[in-house]
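Box S1 | Example of a co-folding query
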Amino acid sequence: MGCYNCHGNPPKKKAPTFAQLATDYAKARDDDRALQKLADKLRDGSILSHIDAHERLSPEAALQLVRWISEGAR
Ligand code: HEC
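Box S1 (continued) | Returned holo structure for heme C
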């Protein structure tokens, strides 16, 4: 879905790499409420810097991706 365009290695703009995000998100692993919050935050462009690729995600896709990241992004 183009995520790696910005979050690859080396990352573009101020994007964190998925490896960095995985470290941050590991604490939400297996915590459905924490994962849901991260997914909502990702889709809410007003908190981050209006990234189309984030705002276009469906709630289901965002939750899936956040869960994938929390499990190590592999
Ligand atoms: C156009 C470049 C770009 C694309 C494409 C992109 N991102 Fe991002 N992403 C960023 C940037 C820049 C940040 C940091 C935003 C900030 O801190 O304001 C970010 C932050 C994030 C974060 C951290 C949010 C947080 O602070 O907790 C996650 C998770 C994330 N992106 C996931 C994704 C996923 C999944 C995709 C693919 C659907 C994606 N990104 C596509 C640029 C991008």
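The mean pLDDT is 91. The pocket of heme C is lined by residues 1-3, 5-7, 12-16, 21, 38, 41-42, 48-49, 51, 53-54, 57, 65, 69 (CB under 6 Å).
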